[in-house]
Amino acid sequence: MGEQRTRRIVLATWGAAVAALPLLWVYHAARGSQEFVNDDGEIRDTLASACVVLLLWAPAVGAVVQPLWRSLLVAGTGGALALAALGGALRWGHRRIDRTHSVLEPAFWERMTWLALRGLVLMMLGVTLGYAIRGIAERLGRRPRTGLVALAVLVGWAVTEALGSRLPQGRFQLSTYIAGWLHGQRLVYRPTADCPAGSCSVYHATWQRSLPVLTAVVAVALLVGRLCRTARPSTNGLSADDD
């Protein structure tokens, strides 16, 4: 029963994430300019948003699928299938519908492939967060339940993002480094009273700067999950009182 419930949770959450992916293109296409067609920008933003959606799905896999290597395999496979299907649909749709504008160069699709691969690597962060959440729930004797621990982590992330948004340059926001990793770089322009303009109000988050920050988050999540399981042995599958 535990394995069946785990499988249902993974498939249901993956299905919900996949169902949301076409809506991402609708959103990015609708917010674009009506006078200037920016197909490459819409495709790039759609794929990047899809990677973020799958990043939010990955903790569910890390929390319910055990052991850790198996959750990484499940999340990687599910993410690869979703991104491959979305990328193929975007490429087919661009060729099929938009025949009046220039065809996107092969180099663009190569960059999109690398973006999708970076998104798959980013999902490791989500899986390890789920691993830590499951470990904390087990350490607390499943009181509060796994879902409540996940909610607490989500609220904590939202609070830190809100606090970081009030600080200059955005260097204290995890979302800055997530975007920097996905896109290769991200410029955050946030002028202050002391620096209304100029380089002092801009933070350049490259993927080289983002990688150590994201690696540190993964390392902390793995450490927390491991320490919690050392104090309380883990169980296979998902118990009946888990969320």
TrEMBL record:
The chain crosses the membrane at residues 9-27, 47-65, 72-92, 112-133, 145-164, 211-228. The keyword Transmembrane applies. Keywords: Membrane, Transmembrane, Transmembrane helix. This is Uncharacterized protein.
